[in-house]
Amino acid sequence: MAESPDPRLAAVRALNRVLPGQGDGASLREVLRRGVPDGSAGGLTRDLCFGVCRYLRPLNQWLNDQLDKPIKAKAQPVRLALLCGLYELWFTERPQHAVVNAYPELCRRLKAGWASGLTNAVLRKASRLDAATAFADYPPAVAASLPDWLWRQFQEDWPEQADDMARASLTPPPFTLRVNRQRHSREQALAALGEGARPGELAPWSLYLTPPRPVAALPGFDTGAFSVQDEAAQLPAERLAVPPGGRVLDACAAPGGKTGQILEAFPDARVVALDRVAERLERVRETLARLGVSAEPRVGDAAEPSDWWDGEPFDAILLDAPCSATGILRRQPDVKWHRRRADLPPLVDLQARMLDALWPLLRPGGRLVYATCSVLREENDRQVAAFLARTPDAADLTERPPAAPAVAAGWQLLPREDGPDGFYLACLRKHEAPAPDEQKGDR
Ligand SMILES: C[S@@+](CC[C@H](N)C(=O)[O-])C[C@H]1O[C@@H](n2cnc3c(N)ncnc32)[C@H](O)[C@@H]1O
């Protein structure tokens, strides 16, 4: 009989691939998509992987403080097993004795029997503490589990909000759905989901479900009645204002979450779904098939329309640009350990080139909605303010709630516990072409 998969062993193997050290820098989501045990064992593997990535910095610091000599680089799996154990003890409700006993055995399975005694001693000591006590004297960037550069950037961009942002980035995200308006009203959907469902406050088709449920347990999920999508991420598509039968460009479409939403909101729109990566467009096709809608897929670089544009203008453009993903660290906590400060200038440059290249494709009177899942101002309001300054026929139409942070353009959402992700959007309108009489004007 095949050996039953050990969820903790699976977590150590996944983390070993994802985290800096011996791994190949693969993204946590990609690694977890394959090679995770089924059912509740898979749930434990995922929890350990996400938890260790979220709290990596203070867990590592505490572990290092306990060691007389550092763990060798080639024994990285032992370090990861210890970090999983610390996370389980301090951030989960699992019985302490079961956690303490599981890891020495795991070391043996990792063929590192030499580490069983060390593991036992470290976890026993940790079981007499809690995280707040263990991390109490750590510098803010360590306690917030952020790389120094990102903590500094949070403080520079958001001096008053940085602490709350860091805290919200450590908590597991809420489970948020988008109701398919072609299938039911939000009230009907809330009634169908029953206890634990509540409407979102910002996006008209959003709802939160606590505790989360497997998507297979959502009524009609397979046939498109719901989609999993953060509330903030639902805001841009609602602002496209597509005229009947209008042509829409979804410029960075994969995996197609917002393409599907555009077609729910504007069912007769003709949508071109563009992405630079052909394989990722296959994900768009799957997303749309579940919703029972279709778009015209196109592989191409949004910054180089001459390679793929057929010359027919668009009534609306969604530019959901590649970005630092610093607004969704709670969903993709491994991003903190992969990103470098040096990655930002090329990203900011690409976003600017995309804005400039796509603007001429928009019909006068049309809207371009620019969006990122970043909280860094150079990718967001400063990016858009610079675009507005160099683009005379563009105006910022973005409506934002009075309590939103003051920014130079658009609407910045900062991550909120039990609320939306960190996200940015700007709704930009192209001036109507002047009438011929006006053109002659006041000469
Ligand atoms: C933030 S994701 C888009 C998410 C998507 N809009 C959704 O809601 O599901 C960014 C996407 O941009 C694509 N991308 C990156 N650079 C691009 C470029 N130069 N041109 C077009 N797409 C690009 C990536 O392949 C990725 O799929």
From TrEMBL:
It catalyses: cytidine(967) in 16S rRNA + S-adenosyl-L-methionine = 5-methylcytidine(967) in 16S rRNA + S-adenosyl-L-homocysteine + H(+). It is found in: Cytoplasm. Its main location: cytoplasm. The active site is at 373 (nucleophile). CDD domains: AdoMet_MTases. The keyword Transcription does not apply. The keyword Transferase applies. Signal peptide: none annotated. InterPro entries: MeTrfase_RsmB-F_NOP2_cat, MeTrfase_RsmB-F_NOP2_dom, NusB-like_sf, NusB_RsmB_TIM44, RCMT, rRNA_ssu_MeTfrase_B, RsmB-like_ferredoxin, RsmB/NOL1/NOP2-like_CS. S-adenosyl-L-methionine binds at residues 252-258, 275, 301, 320. Residues 165-431 form the SAM-dependent MTase RsmB/NOP-type domain. Belongs to the class I-like SAM-binding methyltransferase superfamily. RsmB/NOP family. This is 16S rRNA (cytosine(967)-C(5))-methyltransferase.
